[in-house]
Amino acid sequence: MTEFLFKVLKPGLQTTIQDLGRTGYQQYGISPSGAMDPYSLQMANLLVGNPLHEAGLEATMLGPSLEAMTDVSVAICGGNLQPMVNKKKVSMWKSFVFKKGDILSFGKVESGTRAYIGFAGGIDVPLVLGSKSTFINGAMGGFNGRALEAGDIVHGRPFVRKNRFLHKEFIPEYNAQLVIRVILGPHLEKFHPDAIKRFLSNEYTISPQSNRMGFRLEGPELGHIGGADIISDAIPAGGIQVPSNGQPIILMAERQTTGGYARIATVISVDLPLLAQAMPGTKIGFAEITIKEAQELYRKQRKLFNVLSIVSR
Amino acid sequence: MEFKISPLGDVAVVLSFGNEINERTNRQIQLFVSKLEIEKIRGIIEWVPAYTSLTIYYQPEMIAYESLKAELEKVSLSPGESKSDRKFVYEIPVCYGGEWGVDLAYVADYHGMEKQEVIDIHANREYLIYMMGFMPGFPYLGGLPEKLAVPRLEKPRQSVVPGAVGIGGNQTGIYPADVPSGWRIIGTTPVTLFSPEKEEPFLFGSGQYIKFVPISEEQFLTIKQMGDTYEVKRIEKR
């Protein structure tokens, strides 16, 4: 049965309800949205005994303050925003019981950018087009189509279970320097051959003008052949578009479904969570890999989640 | 049916059907979509038709790129079914000019026409929905007569009302929700194009047609009041 889960005392910078995204409606212009770092959201779900696709909270840089309205198992994964319960530090990647009246708050960013808070039993908001994810620009899904605000009361179907932790081997490290693997294309004919070389051999810095829609990068200019415009087509997560100023933009979870700028490459799926945790100012290098290698890595990660789902039952 | 398949990252492929925007290419893409609906290839999640391409999203744990590519080549040879290929013309009522179409006078002046002439040319013709994107429920329409093309606003408006019908360059379209826009707004439809809570959330999709039908302000307000009970007329296109 649905009951009060927590009350928002302070919303933080941008705290939204996210699951693994809204699929099936991109052909109507609906952004998939969903967790920027689906790896961490799924791990948080596993630790509290939820299905992998259950919705949790995505907190960005400055985390929220939440007051528990019931007893519930909680796990926090992803970026370390220094979570505290009643002002005492709690461990990440490990479940604990968040007791009625307890206050969960966050400190300064220690590593990463986005923390995912999983609640046993999930978050009870209506499914909109099959998903609980907040699509901020579409004012759709999540909590009334928006980020959480002070005073909001969020419902769930809470339960308490034995505490669990994740083996160190599965906890990612977030560095100030990243090498992101990409599959080149699809619009390579729109770029000078030396632009492709330049893209793969230089570092780009994530600009502060980056958000859930996309990460703007700053670095050596990538020149086009015959302009930056293409006949509009669909953009996948991780698509790297280059407008006429030659500075790449990586399209993220809340991207528009279609776009009209030439794209030089696409970030591979298993590297998107690491990218999502990168702070503005992080330096990124790009490395080309084959579709075959990328899909092997993808399958390996799916397998890990399948195995962990079975053992954590 | 000729197309080129290429990987688009590790969870999508893109089928390119050419590099020219025209109805023939669009029909080929729509025909391919109707075949995909019948064949139901394992691992495919969804697809997005665009002007000259079709992007297909899939799960690599169900099907690897090379196998999917082979399956898609097979699908193109299948006969398809004409039933799922039915096309409709959706009649969208529009109140032109006045407060609902603040730029109608500009468009008329720009072309040295009467306002009524602009309405007569813009309405009562079929526009093909080539693709949807940019924002929920936004149709990219083809078929605006060149004699109605106008430059966009130099400074886009902060927002337009939901249902605003505009012209920008040689394109025309409807805004389903309030967004910033540089288009010249010539009218507004009282019809809701997108309601997520309905069983059929979207009024139309790519490959279908739209026809604008002029209505009075009185009719506009009546339809607006009817809300979701107003049914948009659609006529099968032959």
UniProtKB/TrEMBL annotation, chain A:
<keyword id="KW-0067">ATP-binding</keyword>
<dbReference type="GO" id="GO:0005524">
    <property type="term" value="F:ATP binding"/>
</dbReference>
<dbReference type="GO" id="GO:0004039">
    <property type="term" value="F:allophanate hydrolase activity"/>
</dbReference>
<keyword id="KW-0547">Nucleotide-binding</keyword>
<dbReference type="InterPro" id="IPR003778">
    <property type="entry name" value="CT_A_B"/>
</dbReference>
<keyword id="KW-0378">Hydrolase</keyword>
<protein>
    <submittedName>
        <fullName>Allophanate hydrolase 2 subunit 2</fullName>
        <ecNumber>3.5.1.54</ecNumber>
    </submittedName>
</protein>
<dbReference type="InterPro" id="IPR052708">
    <property type="entry name" value="PxpC"/>
</dbReference>
<dbReference type="Pfam" id="PF02626">
    <property type="entry name" value="CT_A_B"/>
</dbReference>
<dbReference type="InterPro" id="IPR029000">
    <property type="entry name" value="Cyclophilin-like_dom_sf"/>
</dbReference>
<feature type="domain" description="Carboxyltransferase">
    <location>
        <begin position="27"/>
        <end position="304"/>
    </location>
</feature>
Automatic annotation (TrEMBL), chain B:
<dbReference type="InterPro" id="IPR010016">
    <property type="entry name" value="PxpB"/>
</dbReference>
<feature type="domain" description="Carboxyltransferase">
    <location>
        <begin position="3"/>
        <end position="204"/>
    </location>
</feature>
<dbReference type="Pfam" id="PF02682">
    <property type="entry name" value="CT_C_D"/>
</dbReference>
<keyword id="KW-0378">Hydrolase</keyword>
<protein>
    <submittedName>
        <fullName>Allophanate hydrolase 2 subunit 1</fullName>
        <ecNumber>3.5.1.54</ecNumber>
    </submittedName>
</protein>
<keyword id="KW-0067">ATP-binding</keyword>
<dbReference type="GO" id="GO:0005524">
    <property type="term" value="F:ATP binding"/>
</dbReference>
<keyword id="KW-0547">Nucleotide-binding</keyword>
<dbReference type="InterPro" id="IPR029000">
    <property type="entry name" value="Cyclophilin-like_dom_sf"/>
</dbReference>
<dbReference type="GO" id="GO:0004039">
    <property type="term" value="F:allophanate hydrolase activity"/>
</dbReference>
<dbReference type="InterPro" id="IPR003833">
    <property type="entry name" value="CT_C_D"/>
</dbReference>
